[in-house]
Design brief:
heterodimer; A: 195 residues; mainly alpha; 7 helices; 2 strands; 80% helix; B: 137 residues; mainly beta; five-stranded antiparallel beta sheet; 8 strands; 11% helix
């Protein structure tokens, strides 16, 4: 019974193999002009072209900026990501804004804390109320400037994504342009020479 | 990523919109157990006569119910720096309705200004009285 079963499976497998073999187009498989190559020389040129493109891609990968890395730079020092992406004017404006806003926030916070410390040490009701009220206004200014700094910081991060994408896009175009500027280039259709 | 940044912006703005906390333990707005002593007013002020050899200034004020101590401040100018003559305060223990204090550490030729305040047992000093002054001849 067991032997009969094995034979049956073998016969079924053979029948399937024959059916599948009928669909296989041997001519198409052996067609040397499938990719437009006329001869071995052209196939070789196409191979060299592919290798060249891989080299360009490698150059691109080495020089491109990662969005995460650039975001980290901008998160630490606003504008750093823009400088890295060669967007100098935007980087300077955003960095300058952050310095001014954070500086103003710190200045008013220091004033607020000066009065607030006195409030915390006060034991006379009028002084207590006076110092607390004195600390409120600079504290609100400090908060407002800090809020603006946070908004600018978040915008900087958002814009860093855009400038990084633009930089990478321009980088690839520059690599291709530089590559095309070369006098002698290898193409699948042969060697191209520019004058 | 952009939605995450928007969320971070909202959280940051909520965080920075917080007010300063009234955390002074003597602040009645923070601690409901603290009693604010009512204002103590100087009812009367008298000085020693010009011919007298010993110079003094006497202050008189009415007893305050909610003050545990009285503080007496003195200055040489109306809006000058007032010095607390009794940092520990004068205990409000007497049954008398009127209090007196005689300041004998005064010199002829000066104008002395005084202010009074009550202090609660927790240590909170109430409103200062309006300054009252007298020249010592």
């Amino acid at each position: 019974m067991d032997r009969l079963m094995k034979r049956l499976i073998l016969i079924i497998t053979c029948m399937f193999s024959i059916l599948l073999a009928q669909d296989f187009d041997l001519e198409k498989f052996t067609d040397t002009q499938k990719y437009g190559w006329e001869d071995f020389e052209q196939r070789n040129l196409a191979k060299m072209d592919l290798q060249e493109r891989q080299r360009l891609l490698q150059i691109y990968r080495m020089n491109r900026l990662t969005t995460a890395g650039n975001l980290a730079k901008s998160a630490i020092v606003p504008g750093w990501g823009h400088f890295a992406a060669q967007s100098y004017t935007k980087g300077q404006i955003l960095l300058g804004l952050e310095v001014v806003l954070l500086g103003s926030s710190l200045y008013f916070y220091d004033q607020a804390m000066d009065s607030y410390d006195k409030y915390q040490k006060a034991d006379q009701i009028d002084e207590m109320n006076q110092y607390y009220n004195d600390s409120l206004e600079p504290y609100r200014y400090s908060q407002a400037f800090l809020g603006l700094a946070v908004i600018v910081w978040i915008y900087t991060l958002y814009d860093t994504i855009n400038v990084t994408e633009d930089y990478n896009s321009n980088l690839w175009n520059d690599i291709i342009r530089e590559y095309n500027r070369q006098n002698v280039i290898i193409t699948p259709t042969g060697i191209s020479v520019r004058f | 990523m952009k939605k995450l940044l928007l969320l971070a912006a909202i959280i940051a703005l909520i965080t920075i919109s917080c007010e300063l906390e009234r955390n002074n333990p003597l602040d009645p707005d923070n601690n409901g157990d603290v009693v604010v002593p009512s204002a103590v007013v100087i009812d009367n002020i008298t000085v020693s006569g010009s011919g007298s050899t010993s110079k003094w200034v006497q202050l008189e004020w009415s007893r305050s119910e909610d003050a545990a101590f009285y503080l007496i401040y003195r200055a040489l100018e109306y809006d000058g720096a007032y010095t607390n003559l009794f940092p520990d305060g004068i205990p409000n223990t007497s049954d008398s309705t009127t209090y007196y204090y005689i300041d004998s550490a005064v010199h002829a030729g000066n104008y002395y200004w005084y202010r009074l305040a009550g202090r609660s047992k927790e240590g909170l000093i109430g409103p200062l009285s309006a300054p009252r002054g007298m020249p010592v001849d």
